[in-house]
Amino acid sequence: MATVELYTKGATVWIPDPDCVWVSAQILESYRAEDKHLLLLLNDGREARCPAASPGELPPLGNPDILEGENDLTALSFLHEPAVLHNLRVRFLDYNSIYTYCGIVLVAINPYDQLPIYGKEVIDAYSGQDMTDMEPHIFAVAEEAYCTMTREEKNQSIIISGESGSGKTVSAKFTMRYLAVVGGASEQTSVEERVLASNPIMESIGNAKTTRNDNSSRFGKYIEIGFGGKGEMFGANMRTYLLEKSRVVFQASSERNYHVFYQLCASRALPEMRALRLDAPEQFRYTNQGGDIDIPDNDDMANLECTRNAFTILGVQPHQQMELFTILAAVLHLGNVNIQASSRGGDRSYIDPADRSLAVFSKLLGVDGPQMAHWLCHRRLAVGGEMLVKPMAGQQALEARDALAKHIYGQLFTWTVHRLNSALHAPRGRPKSFIGVLDIYGFETFDRNSFEQFCINYANEKLQQQFNRHVFHLEQEEYVREELAWSRIEFSDNQPCIGLIEGHLGLLDLLDEECRMPKGSDENWARKLYDQHQSSNPHPHFCKPRMSNSAFILLHFADAVQYECGGFLDKNKDTIFEEPINILRASQSELVAELFQQLPPGDSESQSGGTSSSLANGSLRSGKRGHKEHKLTVGFQFRQSLQLLMGTLNSTTPHYVRCIKPNDLKEPFVFDPKRAVQQLRACGVLETIRISAAGYPSRWTYEEFFNRYRVLLRGEAQNQEQVLASCRRVLPQLIPDPEQYCFGKTKVFFRAGQVALLERLRAERLRRAGVVIQSWVRGWLARLRYSRVRWAARTIQRYCRGALARRLALTLRYTRAALVIQKTYRMVAVRQLFLTIRHAALTIQAFTRGTLARRRLREERAERAAVMLQARVRGWLARRAYGRVRWAVVLTQCCVRRRAARRQLLKLKAEARSVEKYRQLNKGMEVKLMQLQLRADQEARESASLKETLHSEREAHGAELEALRRAVLKLEKQNEKREAPKPPAAISEKELEERRRAEEKAAQEILRLTQEKQALQSERDVLVKEKEELSLGLHKLKETQDESVRQAVSRSGGELRAELDEERRKYQGLLREFTRLEQRYDNLREMSLLTERTKAHRRTDSTQSLGPEPSSPGPPSPCVSFAASPFPSGVPPSPEADRRVSVTGPPGPPGCPGLDRMCSTWSPERLMDPLMERMGVARASAMRMTGEDLGHAYDAVRVANKFLEVQLSSQCGQLEEELEAAKTQLGRPLCGRSSSAQQEDVRELLEAQELECVRLRRELKELRATVTLRRLLAQPASTAPAPVEVLAPPAPHPTPQDPRGLLKCRKRDEAKLIKNLITDVRVDSALSLPAGLAASVLFMCARHMDYSGDHSRAHAFCSNTVTAMKAALKKHSSDVNMTALWLKNACLLNDLLMQHSPKKDGTPGSEGRVPLTSDLSDVSHALSNLCIQAYQQLLSLTEARLHPIIVPAMLESETIAGLSSSVGKMSASRKRAGSEPKAMGGADPPTMASVLRELGVLHGALSRQAVPLALMEQAFRQLTYVIAASSLNSLLLRKDVCCWSRGIQIRYNVSVLEEWLRSHNLQAGGAVAELEPLIQTAQLLQVGKKTEADAESLVETCNVLSSQQIVKILKLYTPHSDLEEKVTLNFLRSVLGVLKRRSDGRPPQLVMDAGHVFPVTFPYLPPPDLHADQLDIPDSLKISFLHRA
Fold first, then answer.
1. Residues 292, 255: contact at Cβ < 8 Å?
2. Does 216 participate in catalysis according to the annotation?
3. N or C: which end of the chain has fewer CB within 10 A?
4. What is the DSSP string of 1203-1262?
């Protein structure tokens, strides 16, 4: 128990709770010795009193908050059950961490969910790392076992235990997957596949549904994975233990038999299964006892298919599978055999001869039915040397039948395991060492426990004893290593319980003895147990239940278990009579006979592990060997197999994994404390803690202790000796009891609770120091406030005096201003009167002059209007006369043209009848032209209709406006007339009345017209407004459509670019895989050649491919070469060809040498055949045409093609003009909207125009080919050879006229040139050459060969060059400089071929250059692949050199001196007990300088070869991504680097890398952007982590990291100094809430894909013109045999 002084007010304790097992409470009053109770405050606010009459009754103390969520339970200050349970619950529920260390044990809690922590990236992160530096994981245990095996060359074992449903099988599967990946051999995949294929088979025949688990393993297994001397995987072997055979014949309620029976019944409708005569599972006695047949979300039929596939993978043939299924079906039918008791006394039994089940059983197994029926109801006895046959009672016969079924199933299970071991066996040699994975059942206790639970718990007792002794041994080694004066640690050794079970006169001995008794029974065995272990010699671990005489209780290490004695004898004997076995041995089925073959003596013990022979799991009872019938009991065999297993485990180094089932509902991340603590007690985790707590569980190095408790120590320590002396001097003052601590060699050890005491003393010292600091600060603040108040008073006085002085000055200023204002006002009044009089005079003068001027203007306007009217009328009359004359002329012309058109129409109709074939051939082109014409007509019609609508609207508005104007003028004239002065006259009253009425009427009319005018004006305004709205809407709609089109084009372009990148990445990945396979092929070929070297010398493929291709003895025949090439690209034979034909060909007529061969070669048939085949023209239909038809067809096609050529040429020219205009627009300075958007539009337009140009060129080319074909078809079949030369099109690419500047290489020197320049060039000589010299020399030689007309030689030379470059790249596969050299040469040679390619459409830099006449497209493609291969090899070399130094340099190196030394590490960073760190070499640890050095090597190699900057940017982008991914993946799995100081260090290291990239101009290609995840991780470690605002800013800052990565880093964050605080759970919940609102669409991922490869694109840079005189070829290359042409 902890120190009593720690029970102070505010401390946390744990008290028992019936629901939660343990709940935390806070002490309200400090505990005193005289107190009888402890006053506590519960979490729900209630107060409680805990009895504490003595210090021993005090409740356990809680650990400090800083240790909450600790990844190693032994690092807790207080080691007890509630602390362990709480820590596991916090890690499981709050941190989602399912793995936790407990000393040497890994506790794994089943999450019942898929977690992204088992991928290839996680395996790479754990590979080669020390498990103490990484987060707890099953991979860390596997890595520890693998490294220990390779380092110490000692076998290892990984013991995985737990109850059903806790995840043992999954943990074993992940362990084997990790070992297969790190095994390294190429066979690892097949081995892993076979091992994993065994899982469905073993689950099918060994797993069943129980009340706790739907897929419970009813057997244990131990898999040994063998490894060679270099750590490569060899093979595997499996042992099985204690198959629950009783489940075959009996299942409890809500349970099932083994899965395979239900799978067979579900698949009974399959054709191959119909012969098994199966029915529904409810119809069989062996499958319907549990009642619950179905399992939710389980498909038995699909599972059987998986089982059959697994059998196929393991090499079991289909007919053997059917034999196995037949035996299983026979077991089901055997259970339905009806055994009836005789009516006379019931001591006899019989089977009806017509029993259908027995008949099916006998037929399936190939045995005699009547014999089997007889011996199922009878047995043979030996009495007095005579053999008697005794009938069996009905119950005995039923038991014999069930025993036979169990025996058959057990033998089949054993055969399957043997077959799996044969498939998993290593194909060669023996493994040097192995790693065993033990997947065994955990401690079991049910409401009714029988023989199976007894054996399982017996095995767990043995394993727990081995575990306890191993833990004690590790503790002892630690104390010896630290040279402690220690006393023996007492731990609960369970040897008494094991002795009770297996010792002399133990439970197993008495059970075997009772089995040998003639009339032994379970009751007699129970009485013997009571007499032996309770009455005569009481055993502390044995007791008798009060209310039962047929049961006993064993006090196991985990719990007390009550076993029911019923059935123990039968299950232990597992008796099977010999007569039915003999019948099965005589079966017609080979597999059945093989299962029951009798083995020689001793073979049963030679079987591997727990697998058994035909007699291993049962005893044969016969008349001849009655005294030996019970010798091999199940308990005896299990004890032997368990002893063999323990011997294996004791000879290995064990590693322990304890699987915990968090709840019985199988809900994800639901923690049931009752179930958890029950399993913790049963699996030995608490015993480990108890052993650790019995010694010195808390261990600190002296440096860590000094850094943590510096405030409690005196003085400064400059070195290790001073630190040790200071600790030894001060620690006795802090802890008076010397038994509570101990000084070791490098560490100081504390008893349980002493670290908490030191933490309390440290907190008190810090609190007192805080009070002193607060008093000084408050005094300083008071003095500061007083000085500020005094300064403020003086300032106020100064301001008041200044204000009074300013007020006096203002009064004097006001007085003077008043005088100035008075004087100025008087002057302004007089001046205002003068200005008024002058203004009036000027106004009168202006009005008078204006009246005179307007009068003159009106007179001039009237005169000018009259002149204009006269001119308009005269012009109209002249135009009308001209129009009449023109109409007459046009009419005459139309009549004449109509007459000529009709004649032309008749002529065209006549011609159209003969060109029907042409119309069919050009149907597609006509349809396309018609579609284009229809589209153009439709657009023209729409444009015309819109123009007409607009014109009509304008005319209507103009007419309305003109009408309104006329109405206004009319009214104005009427008013003028009305107002005009009239001579005075005598007006009568009547006239006055009429005038008055007229005026009223005119006024009404004026009012009406004014209203109509206003209405029309308003209507006009409305129409104008509607027009403006429609125009605006149309404009907006057009803009929206344009914007949507641009977005769609941009989106589709982005998708296409992404698809292109993905396809490029896949292609480059396939190329990388092809390179790897090619390397494997070369290795195998070299091995085969080494084996054949003694027979004869053979030339290798590589040497054959390096030389030039073999040529024919004479020059190639031009006839063959020309005939083999298609006609459009062929050229007429040169005079040199004529000469060669005349020399090599047969003699011809005089004066015409070789004419017959030329005629045969240049015949139209030979030329038309490939062309007609290419154009899809049937030769038969073409030959049926007559000469006249062909002539008419030719004329029609020529006219139509001429027309189409003109149209296409015009369209092509128009598109080229638009393209030039777009390019010009792109080159101008952009204004208005954003230049980037305009540039994007122009680029899209350019791309569309270029695509259209390419399409038109392609159509034009096809059209020209069609014209050529029509010309050929138009000629008679017997055309002479002479016109062929006329019809032959000119060569598409002109031949260079001037060969000067090229290099000439003789044919016999080609191999020598390639050898001296590529394959055998020395490294120093090659690196001293100018960049790309080899490619330039080789290209100039190839171009000279092409100029000479020897195309095959040029092609062969280029192909040999590519092959030689591949061989050179392979030869220097570990040299960065040489790889860069051949990368440059391959790229340059490819660019040169592209520049001079015949198909150079759109290739920059190819204008004005004479193209090659040879087709080298396949060589160019091979060069592209070679460039990719060289690039990938270059990156692989650099990544291989960077990989071991990335994590130490980026995460562990301390580039900032003194940053990490100023803070002390907490207990979380200390090494786990029982784990030794890996030995480090004497070399200095890697730093950022090492990383930059490797990057500098690559950059120097690329720079020396003048590799394009774009390609260098892509390479360094890939490398920075690898650096960021590897560093981040390691950080996400390490707790020791997730702190504030390490975040600063990481950010500094990244900034160093960024600065290096910028200094080398590599930041533009995305290299810096790939470091963003690491930068944001460093920022995440440095920012505040307390408030909601911190959570918001944190999530906003880390926009590149995924939600899982952010949460994982926050969970791993560990304070390493007093200035930091641990991330609270409330802050974690806040961050999770903010992350849920962030919908970025990013896929959930925890670790980055470190194997991701960006696709590479090689930029095309037009090479400069090459000339032989410009090349500086050194003599060291020894290629002086080349000559300049």
1. yes
2. yes
3. N
4. HHHHHHHHHHHHHHHHHHHHHHHHHSPP-SS-HHHHHHHHHHHHHHHHHHHHHHHHHHHH
Tens-place pLDDT, residues 1546-1584: 999 999 999 999 999 988 888 899 999 999 999 999 888
Q: Which residue has 């199976």 as its token pair?
A: 452
CB atoms within 10 A of CB 1159: 15
Enter the DSSP assignment of 1025: H
* Residue 442 designated active-site: yes
Catalytic residue among 3, 148, 164, 1530: 164
Q: How many CB atoms lie within 10 A of CB 217?
A: 20
C-alpha 759/C-alpha 763 separation (Å) is: 6
Per-residue pLDDT at 432 = 87
Which sign, positive or negative, has the C-alpha torsion 504, 508, 511, 515? negative
Q: Considering the entire predicted model, what is its pTM? A: 0.66
Contacts (Cβ under 8 Å, ≥6 apart) of 133 = 1534, 1536
Contact by Cβ (8 Å): 1508, 1514: no
Kind and range of the H or E element at 640? helix 634-650
**Side chain identity at residue 666, one-letter code:** K
- Hey, how many other C-beta atoms are within 10 angstroms of the C-beta on 232? 17
Query: Which residues, at least 6 apart from 770, have a Cβ–Cβ distance to it below 8 Å?
Result: none
By the 10 Å C-beta count (0-12 exposed, 13-18 middle, 19+ buried), 285 is classed as middle
For residue 261, the number of C-alpha atoms closer than 13 Å in the C-beta half-sphere is: 27
Under 8 Å between Cβ of 1182 and 1273: yes
Does the active-site annotation cover 1102?
Answer: no
CB atoms within 10 A of CB 761: 16
CB 479 within 8 A of CB 594: no
Residue 1207, amino acid = Q
Which of 148, 216, 414, 1541 is catalytic? The answer is 216
Q: Is 169 a catalytic residue?
A: yes
Question: Hunting for tokens 């304790």 — which residue is that?
Answer: 13
pLDDT tens-digit readout, 53-68:
777 788 888 887 777 8
pLDDT digits (tens, 9 = 90+) for 937-955: 888 888 788 888 888 878 8
Catalytic annotation, pick one of 97, 148, 210, 217: 217
C-alpha 1065/C-alpha 1657 separation (Å) is 10
Q: Among residues 24, 213, 1377, 1424, which one is catalytic?
A: 213
**Token pair of 932, please?**
């284009």
Confidence of residue 1527 (pLDDT cuts 50, 70, 90): very high
Which residue of the set 3, 110, 132, 169 is catalytic?
169
CA distance 86 to 12: 13
Contact 455, 572 (CB under 8 A): no
Establish whether 589 is a catalytic residue. no
Report DSSP state, residue 422. Answer: H
Q: Per-residue confidence at 109, pLDDT binned at 50, 70, 90?
A: very high
Q: Which residues contact 619 (CB under 8 A, 6 or more apart)?
A: 573, 574, 575, 576, 629, 630, 631, 632, 633
Pairing of strands 433-441, 156-162: parallel
The number of beta carbons lying within 10 Å of the beta carbon of residue 576 is: 22
The DSSP secondary structure of 224-238, one letter per residue, reads EEEE-TTS-EEEEEE
**Which of the residues 163, 255, 444, 704 is marked catalytic?**
444
CA gap 1512, 1438 in Å, rounded: 13
H-assigned helices in 1448-1487: none
The two structure tokens encoding residue 20: 């939660």
Averaged pLDDT score across all residues of the chain: 79
The tokens of 960 are what? 């309305």
Q: Which amino acid is at 1389?
A: L
Respond yes or no: is residue 164 known to be catalytic.
yes
Q: Is the pLDDT of residue 738 over 70?
A: yes
